[in-house]
Amino acid sequence: MAYTRSVIITGGTINLGYHTALQIARQHPDWLIVISSRSDHERAAESINKTLGQNNVVLIPLDLSESKSIRAYAQEWSSKNYPPIQALLLNAALQFPDSGTHDPAMKSGLPDAIYTSAEELARPPPVIANGPGRRHYANSKLANIMWTYALHKHLNQRIPDRGITVNAFDPGLMPGSGLAREYSPLLRFVWNKIMPRTMPLLRAVFTPNIHKPSESAASLVRLATADDVAGVSGKYFEGPKEIRSSKASYDEKKQDDLWQWTVKYCAQDEAEAARFEEFK
After folding, report:
1. Minimal CA–CA distance to 60: which of 34, 89, 32?
2. Cα distance between residue 229 and residue 249, in whole Å
3. I need a labelling partner for 44 at 20 to 30 A (CA). Which of 118, 182, 213, 258 fits?
4. Is 3.40.50.720 the CATH classification of the domain at 1-92?
5. Torsion over CA of 181, 33, 147 and 159, rounded to 10 degrees?
C-alpha cells in the first residue's frame, strides 16, 4: 500500500505509546505508524500488525539519550521516501507519569519544580545534582511544557503559513503500566495488582486524572489527529481537557532561555543554529 501520511511515536513499544500506536493504526490504515525506541523486546510493531491484520506499523530504532542516534535517525528519514509526517508524538517516562507534577498547585506529593536556567538543569551544581531525584523529574516536566510554549511561539513567528501545531499532554496516572519497574517488590505489587482494580476509588479520593493506558491513549490520539482540535496550538491538555499549566511555565524569559540553550546545545555550528532558528 502507498501510505499517505506518517506518524512517529517515541517510546511506542509498551503502555501509553503502544496503545496510541494501536489506535492510530486502526483508525488510519493508510498511514505509516513508526514506533521509535531503543529496542522492541515486546515486538510491539509485529503485535499491532497481527492484532489489526495490517502491516502499517514499523519500528525504526532511536535512542533519544544519544545525539548521534538522533542525527542518524533524521538522516535515514530524510534519505528514504517516507510519507509526510502528520504527527510527532514524543512519549517516554520512567516514573510519576502525571505531568501535573510540574505544578505546585496540583499537590502531587513531589517537590516543587524549580527552574533557574536551562544550563543549571542540564549541568547542575552539586547542591542541586545531589538533591531528590523526584525534584529532577518535576523539573523535567516543567521544562517540557515550557519548551512546548517556546516552540509554539517560534513556529508562529517564523512559519505561520505551515499550520504546524504543538501541544503538551498529561496522560494522568496509569496504574498497572511498566512505570513502576524500579519500585520495591511491595510497591510493584500494589501498583500492578491493587491499584488497577481500585481506580474508581482512587479517582474519588485523590484525582479524577487516573486512567488505563488505553484510555489515556484515546485522549492523546484525539489531540494528535482529530478534526475538532485541528489548529489548536500552544496549549496544555489534561486528558481530553484543555487546562492551564503552572504559573511558572508561562514565564517567557525562561522559555526563551530554554529555547536558546537548546539551539546552542543541539547545533553543530553557527550555520546549523541559524537553520534551526529559521526552521530550514
Report:
1. 34
2. 22
3. 182
4. yes
5. 180
User: Which residue is listed with cell 502491516?
Assistant: 55
Is the predicted pLDDT of residue 189 greater than 70, yes or no?
A: yes
- pTM (whole model) above 0.85: yes
Q: SS3 for 185-242, per residue?
A: HHHHHHHHHHHHHCHHHHHHHCCCCECCHHHHHHHHHHHHHCHHHCCCCCCEEECCEE
Instruction: Band the pLDDT of 48: cuts 50, 70, 90.
Output: very high
Query: At 273, is the pLDDT very low, low, confident or very high (cuts 50, 70, 90)?
Result: very high
- What does the pLDDT read at residue 99? 47
Amino acid of residue 139: N
Residues of the chain with CATH 3.40.50.720: 1-92
Interatomic CA distance for residues 21 and 13, integer angstroms: 9
